[in-house]
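Here comes a specimen:
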Amino acid sequence: MKLSFDFWPGERAKAASTGRSQGYRTSLDVPVREAAVLYLNDRRVGSVWAPPYTIDVTGQLRPGENKIRIDVANLAVNYLASIKLPNYNYAGVTQQFGNRFQPQNLDQIVPLPAGLLGPCV
């Protein structure tokens, strides 16, 4: 018998209309934003980062209770959004290379959804 751990297949996202009529666009609400690694009984059994969000666990389960652990990736932007950014002094860089290294929109950094976003069935 084949057994799978299914993170959820995802579903079509309800996107707001942009009013544009050219081209095609589709969105998918996915169960795993970046990546997830599945461990059963402290043993890595697989990872997912793209459809299908299913891992074959045939032969990995033992009778009785099993320990499940899911490690999920986060985004660097979420870390940046959680800290106070330093006041960078670009005077030396600007003096040597000109005014080409200006930070942009650092005040607009906001966290993005990450981790498990849907039910595991």
Observations:
- Residues 76-82 form the longest helix (7 residues).
- The chain has a mean pLDDT of 79.
- The radius of gyration is 21 Å.
- The beta strands are 4-6, 11-12, 28-29, 36-40, 43-48, 54-56, 68-72.
